[in-house]
Sequence to fold (195 residues):
Amino acid sequence: ASIETPGNIPVVLSAACQLYQTQAGGYQEEVSLPLGMVVNAVFKNQSWLYVQTPHGEEGYVRYASCLPLGILPPQHDTAPCWESHSDIFPKPVGTRSECGRARSECGGGSKWRTGNGSGVARTEAVANTRLKAATRQTLLVISKDYQSTGPSTLTVAKGDVVALISSKVKDWFWVRDRRGQEGFIPAAVAGHGFL
Fold:
């Protein structure tokens, strides 16, 4: 894509950043853009994206500050959640009981360790179920039919909704359909994850 043939791809700013506008006369103006703003990416130039804001301003932002809509950043456990821009909500740790209070607030240990410990096992099973339910899924809408060509690919039709499992292979998505079947599809049939 270029200024003559723009890409026009909506992206969201994953961090507050500066929009650098080059002005006539050789000077540069900077405009602060907030976290979460959706901008229109026109083209990429090395590590910069030329974007248009909803307010009609144009200029360059750092490519690393942008995420295409519908794509989540990879999970990295290298930093605590409060230092990460990719997940603003901490993951549940299962320290709360079914009554919504900390286990120690629910009447002591005897309530949780009854008989052979089945109360503890049941509470841990409920916590594990909640953790699985809290796992985020990125859903993709299929924009073109695709016929499976091998054992690891999946047949999808236009309009199908699939869950994105992995996007680590260039130009391919590993997805799960509503029947629970998994396989690769070309990223292009899902619009590369863009809405």
Summary: Helices lie at 109-112, 118-134.
